[in-house]
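If your schedule permits, I should be very grateful for your opinion on a structural question. The matter concerns a single protein, recorded as an amino acid sequence and a row of backbone structure tokens. Could you please explain, in whatever detail you think fit, how the structure tokens follow from the sequence? I set the record out below, with my sincere thanks for your time.

——
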Amino acid sequence: MSNQPYSFFHSVEKSFDKAAKFTKWEKGLLEQIKACNSIYSMRFPVKMDDGRIEVIEAYRVQHSQHKSPCKGGIRFSDEVNQDEVMALASLMTYKCAIVNVPFGGGKGGIKINPRKYSTYELEKITRRYTSELVKKNFIGPGIDVPAPDYGTGEREMAWIVDTYASLKPGDIDAAGCVTGKPISQGGVHGRKEATGLGVFFGTREVCNMPEVMNKLGMSLGIEGKRIVVQGMGNVGYFCAKFFREHGAKVIAIAEYEGAVFNENGLNEEELFQHRKKSGSILNFPGATNIEKTTEALEIECDILVPAALENVINGNNAPRIKAKIIAEAANGPLTPEADEIFVQKGVLVIPDMYLNAGGVTVSYFEWLKNLSHVRYGRMEKRFTENMNSRILSQIESLTGKEVAEKERNFIKHGADEIDLVHSGLEETMISATREIMEIWHNNPSIPDMRTAAYVSAINKVGTSYTELGIFP
């Protein structure tokens, strides 16, 4: 089991139980919502480049089938264990429910450090894992749809879809068996930045709520806010990018080798290129090094964005954290003890289970694209542009004034796939934020935003079960 001081799954159950008290469902139904439906733990041999055989440990957990298919990423990490995969699968159920994406929760993991394997070895491991899932009916566009997670990306998803399609000849919807694929393999534009952009949209919506910001003693909006980002992977990079582009200052970025600090703000792309060249984010021109990466979490700032691994903020370091808002971009970065401390300190924690749902939201759009076999915007883009051109011409002839070229192009523009994906994601994050805040506002005895988010999820999953007639 995990070498963590307590079980990650247990801490998810703890948060669930805390929220269940504020719902109307009976104990038996709550137990069903909480339980993991299916756990597939596997071991399989793979021949390495040097000829030796290594036995690989891997998992796939389907937490809930109140909606089909199940949905959730696959992570490659030394830390993978059954408890962690169960916890992440259950968070996926609640996450999908909160953002109104019609999936049950799932999660997968392979216990390897991907840095220690060649590309060919990783391909063999990924393809073998996929064939094991196919054998047991644990993958398919209508059964269980994986996606990238920590340690995986487009490349691994391409291997998965290729393996699945070769084992299921003639399955016209085979591309929908996994999301986060390269565009050429049926992926969707906007998937790469989806989680980071979703974190930005959700945090911005909270920062635009006068009542919330007054309580925190902060000014409205994102502009001018001082941000600290922990993690320079895909999610952390795009979080930093969108906050910076919308007028916030990213004053520190932390990675496992240390952190860098600049009061005037950092540019994530320049830092990324510096790390590519030197192998580390440290010694970035114009920035101060912070040798101990955990110290970056304790820097004075407005918004702290943990975008790395779970349990980085716990009972020990939570009292020293000075941020007024913690935007959980990673899965489970706070322990339940940290939550309690922040409630007492009046710090607002925007919970992971909905804030980082950008990935699964855009995965849903990708899955729909795969099932419909047509890219977004293809049917209406030109029609919209032609119609808008006609309207503009009419306005110009009626007023006798010409619209400036820049404005003309903007008004005329018909939506591309990426425009529609970003717009759908923005709508999803704004409406989910408002739903959660309304639940919290209507029940002042709910202690924090995480509990309000769980209440939202439990109510939706509970309603699904009762409407299915499973519990008359």
